[in-house]
Specification:
The complex is a heterotrimer of chains A (273), B (336) and C (331). Helix content of chain A is 31%, strand content 25%. With 273 residues, chain A is an alpha/beta fold. Chain A has 2 domains: 209 residues, 3-Layer(aba) Sandwich (Rossmann fold), CATH 3.40.50.300; 51 residues, no CATH class. A 6-stranded mixed β-sheet of chain A has the order 6-7-8-3-9-10, with helices on both faces. The two termini of chain A are 35 Å apart. With 336 residues, chain B is α/β, with parallel strands linked by helices. Chain B is built from 11 helices and 13 strands. In chain B, helix 7 packs across helix 8. Chain C is mostly helical and 331 residues long. Chain C has one domain: ABC transporter involved in vitamin B12 uptake, BtuC. Chain C has 14 helices and 4 strands. In chain C, a hairpin with a 2-residue loop joins strand 2 and strand 3. Chain C starts with 5 loop residues before the first helix and ends with a helix. Chains B and C meet through helix 1, strand 2 and helix 3 of B and helix 1, helix 2, helix 3, helix 13 and helix 14 of C. Chain A: It comes from Tamaricihabitans halophyticus. Chain A: It holds the Pfam family ABC_tran.
Chain lengths: 273, 336, 331
């Protein structure tokens, strides 16, 4: 317990190897309540392996994960979900031909009370629609109708549905993988706003992104991942965008004391696996 | 238009259709639609549309119907053994108001109840080419006597072999079909063998299909290659057998049944030694004529009308009456 | 939407109509069926009689029922090439057991158990070893067809059993339309399946799995269990289709319904279900089967030979798939 330091999600010494390739090499991770933590790193730095480990999609070879102070071991995304960690995948994991309410409750449908639900397995569509509507209203996501099919929505609206689902069911952590990657300027701004609102409801958000301006706009802290491990934790309030880019390319290094200095072998940048 | 717009449209259309149905049904309710008084309306239901034999039968019937100036439509099962398809065809012809249905029944028992319903409505049903079991299920049958046709093939082969002990392969048709059973039975009678005799080196079902026949023959020859005679259930089967025999340098006596122009050509080329010709065009003509007579006078034909069969060969043997291939070419699947 | 001009609202309505048709895939086929009925009613004297309409329904029951099972499988983006051959084997087993002296209802239940078991085996191979449904069911089609011929010795097996024939032996007049038990059973099945697909979590999962199996998995749906359940339910349906077949022709024949597998797919496609999975309805499938029977009946009444009837059916199939594709490209 003493190791917790008030984190909600914490990992130490995570290792994952795929054959001869080491995707994660002793990675650490800390997420505190009520914050938006951005995870940045170059392509191949191993941040997606880290995220998959935290969301249960990858079982690490070594290392430990704690959720709310308790040691956890996820054997699949369902384990993580049951523990309260919701993930918004880059391809959103929505069923495009189904309507918004159905997607929101996909895999977690509510049945009618009484005989019709128990014996005839009838779903409580009315209640699910109402609940979906409430979630969308609370998060301020604008849609014409909760019964619209997802494939008729814009990219940003779809992202909104996926985020709303995570927000509705996540009790501990929401992880978002590149939520703005496929979106235009206006839609991106809306999604960032949405992330802020989720944080304001008290749910911490892990945001994986390549987009530095977006990261600097919304994140409270920045986890910099490089060569399979965390090399620095920066904060938009204290560091510049250039410094963070320098850290993730290896041009700059952060010392134990948090001081940033120029790396001795800056040419190593770009030699990630 | 509201959310229920299209559904409402649908409902209105459906109601309209039902209303329309109600009106017309009053006109026709309960009765068959008899065509113009005294005028025949003929429906033909063949086993398939793909077999050239049935195509010949169909075209002959169509031609005869045109000459007699009667309405005609042709339907078929979609594959050999398509009972449900033939039942549907009969039902639809009854509904159409046919006065006579000519049918080459697929599986003899499968379509009986549909035929019975048609007959109950006063429609004359004649079996063409293939008899039903029991034969009385239809008003009459116009067909080749298949036992006789098989017997003629057997007699020819027996006579052509002379003193030599037969060593025979049998390439049969679709298992369970009456045509197959009767031809095989006739052949064995004609050649003087019984099932299980050691002179029968092997037999297989080829469903009357050339490719299957080739495969069957190849497999049988693998086991026993010293054959001197091959029974084939029809001419495509004979062609398949030849495709298996020739590359192996074998040239036994090959007998067949059908008498299609291509089959006669095979006899002319020497690929097949003799084929027993049947006369589908005659069946079609007699069938249509009977339909016309029935519509005019109400008289139905009954019993079995044998349209006959003739051995076609260029190597006639004593004791087996035959015609040469020149005659065969003039009359193939014809109306002799 | 502050300036709701006339032009604007018209567009909105048209979009809504398109949306409605996409959401309710049975509407298109239903309109096509009504159009066909209308055309044949006007062009022939004999098509539009209650007796004939009843006949058309009876003619579409067997393939229509098989196609209901096929619909479930196609909704999961799978396909079943063995569906009709499984039903044919069941007709032989049911008829044979009844001939052997077993009570008809026991023979019926054993037949349904058999079709369920074979379909479950299909499902197990597809989910456990992750083989493509096309290959598994193609293999199963070949095996089951052969087993049917071996079992029956190539002979057909007539049945006189009252239970096995029950679906067509009694006819009731319903508003003047002759209705058989087979039609009632088919209607109950369509309603039951439509309910299960639209109103239960299982149905939502079937659609989701067909739509995007990975998304379904990440949403917490057990894709394997859903698929397996779909194949088993389809198997039960094939068993009932076998019962319908014995009602229609009380003579089980190993050579029957040789292209029933494809006929079932035809009905599914004409019914507006997408071969790409995730969209469609069982109601549409029944309508698809009715369209085929209507064409056959109507064109016969009009005196048109059946090869042209096949041309018409084939054209409709291609048109239906093209419509499916085009409607989705518009998105």
């Amino acid at each position: 317990m003493s190791e917790q330091n008030g984190t909600i999600l914490r990992a130490r010494g995570l290792v994952k190897r795929y054959g001869s390739v080491t995707a994660m090499d002793g990675a650490d991770f800390d997420l505190y309540p009520g914050e938006v933590l951005a995870v940045v790193g170059d392509n191949g730095a191993g941040k997606s392996t880290l995220i998959k480990t935290l969301s249960g999609a990858v079982l690490p070879d070594a290392g430990e994960v704690w959720l709310d102070g308790k040691r956890v071991r996820f054997h699949g995304p369902l384990d993580a979900r049951k523990a309260g960690i919701e993930t918004v995948y880059q391809d959103l994991a929505l069923a495009p031909a189904q309507d918004i309410a159905t997607n929101l409750f996909l895999g977690r449908e509510r049945r009618n009370p009484g005989i019709s639900g128990f014996l005839f397995r009838k779903l409580d569509s009315k209640r699910m629609r109402a609940e979906a509507q409430r979630v969308f209203d609370e998060l301020g996501i604008g849609i014409t109708s909760i019964q619209q099919r997802v494939e008729t929505l814009s990219g940003g609206q779809r992202q909104g549905v996926a985020v709303a689902r995570a927000a509705a069911f996540g009790t501990k952590v929401v992880i978002m993988d590149e939520p703005t990657a496929a979106l235009g300027v206006a839609e991106s701004a809306k999604v960032l706003e949405l992330i802020g609102r989720i944080r304001d409801r008290g749910l911490p958000v892990v945001l994986i992104s390549h987009n530095m301006p977006h990261v600097f706009e919304i994140a409270d802290r920045i986890h910099v991942h490089r060569l399979g491990r965390r090399v620095a934790v920066a904060a938009p309030a204290e560091h510049s965008m250039n410094q963070v880019v320098g850290l993730l390319t290896g041009a700059l290094v952060m010392g134990e004391d948090g001081a940033i200095t120029e790396a001795q072998h800056a040419v190593t940048a770009g030699l990630d696996q | 238009m509201g959310r229920w717009g299209p559904l409402r449209l649908l409902a209105i259309a459906a109601a309209g259709a039902l209303l329309l149905a109600g009106c017309t049904s009053e006109r026709y309710w309960g009765g068959t639609n008899v065509a113009e008084e005294g005028k025949a309306k003929v429906g033909l239901v063949t086993k398939t549309d793909t077999n050239p034999y049935f195509v010949q039968l169909r075209e002959a019937a169509r031609k005869q119907a045109a000459e007699q100036d009667v309405e005609f439509s042709a339907l078929a099962g979609r594959f050999d053994g398509d009972n449900a398809g033939q039942v549907t065809a009969i039902e639809n012809l009854v509904q159409q108001g046919a006065t006579t249905i000519l049918i080459t029944p697929n599986s003899s028992t499968g379509v009986l109840s549909a035929i019975e319903q048609a007959r109950n409505k006063g429609i004359m049903v004649l079996a063409l080419d293939t008899a039903t079991e029991p034969e009385e299920a239809v008003d009459g049958t116009i067909a080749t006597d298949n036992v006789e046709a098989g017997r003629k093939q057997g007699q020819y082969i027996k006579a052509a072999l002379g003193e030599t002990d037969p060593q025979v392969l049998l390439l049969n048709g679709t298992p369970g079909s009456s045509v197959d059973t009767q031809r095989r039975q006739g052949f064995l009678e004609g050649i003087g063998l019984k099932a299980g005799d050691s002179q029968i080196l092997g037999e297989d079902s080829a469903n009357g299909d050339q490719n299957m026949a080739q495969e069957s023959a190849e497999n049988l020859l693998q086991r026993a290659s010293d054959v001197n005679a091959v029974y084939t259930m029809n001419e495509p089967t004979a062609r398949g057998a030849n495709a298996a025999l020739r590359p192996r340098g074998l040239d036994p006596l090959v007998g067949s049944i059908d008498g299609g122009c291509q089959g006669v050509g095979d006899v002319q080329k020497g690929d097949v030694d003799a084929t027993v010709m049947q006369f589908p065009a005659k069946m079609a003509r007699l069938g249509v004529d009977a339909a016309v007579e029935h519509a005019r006078s109400g008289k139905k034909i009954s019993g079995f009308e044998n349209t006959g069969s003739v051995v076609i060969t260029d190597n006639p043997v004593p004791g087996v009456p035959s015609q040469n291939t020149e005659w065969g070419m003039r009359n193939c699947w014809g109306d002799s | 939407m502050t300036t709701n001009t006339a032009d604007n609202s018209k567009k909105y309505t048209r979009a809504q109509l398109g949306e409605y048709i996409l959401r309710t895939p049975a509407v298109g086929p239903a309109l096509a069926l009504l159009a066909a009925i209308l055309i044949f009613s006007l062009t022939t004297d004999t098509f539009l009689e209650l007796d004939n309409l009843s006949l058309v329904v009876a003619q579409s029951l067997v393939i229509g029922t098989i196609a209901l099972g096929q619909t479930l499988i196609i909704l999961t983006a799978g396909i079943d090439l063995s569906c009709a051959s499984i039903a044919v084997l069941a007709t032989l087993v049911m008829a044979d057991l009844a001939v052997g002296g077993m009570p008809g209802w026991v023979a019926l239940l054993l037949g349904i158990a058999l079709t369920s078991a074979i379909a479950a085996l299909n499902g197990a191979l597809i989910t456990a070893i992750r083989l493509p449904p096309f290959i598994v069911t193609l293999g199963m089609f070949t095996i089951v067809t052969a087993v049917a011929r071996i079992y029956s010795d190539g002979q057909s097996i007539p049945t006189t059993d009252g239970v096995l024939r029950w679906l067509s032996t009694q006819r009731y007049l319903f508003g003047g339309i002759p209705v058989t038990n087979g039609m009632t059973i088919a209607l109950i099945m369509v309603l039951g399946l439509a309910y299960a697909l639209a109103k239960t979590a299982w149905g939502k999962h079937v659609y989701a799995v067909g739509n995007d199996p990975e998304a379904a998995r990440l949403s917490g749906i057990s894709v394997r269990r859903t698929l397996l359940s779909v194949y088993i339910v389809a198997g039960v349906i094939y068993g009932i289709a076998a019962w319908q077949a014995l009602g229609r022709v009380p003579n089980a024949d190993p050579n029957a319904y040789q292209i029933g597998n494809l006929d079932a797919i035809t009905a599914v496609v004409l019914g507006g279900t997408s071969l790409f999975g995730g969209r469609g309805s069982v109601l549409g499938t029944m309508i698809g089967a009715l369209i085929v029977a209507t064409l056959r009946s109507g064109l016969t009444q009009a005196g048109i030979d059946d090869l042209y009837q096949d041309v018409a059916t084939g054209t409709l199939v291609i048109a239906a798939v093209a419509l499916d594709r085009l409607s989705r490209r518009k998105q």
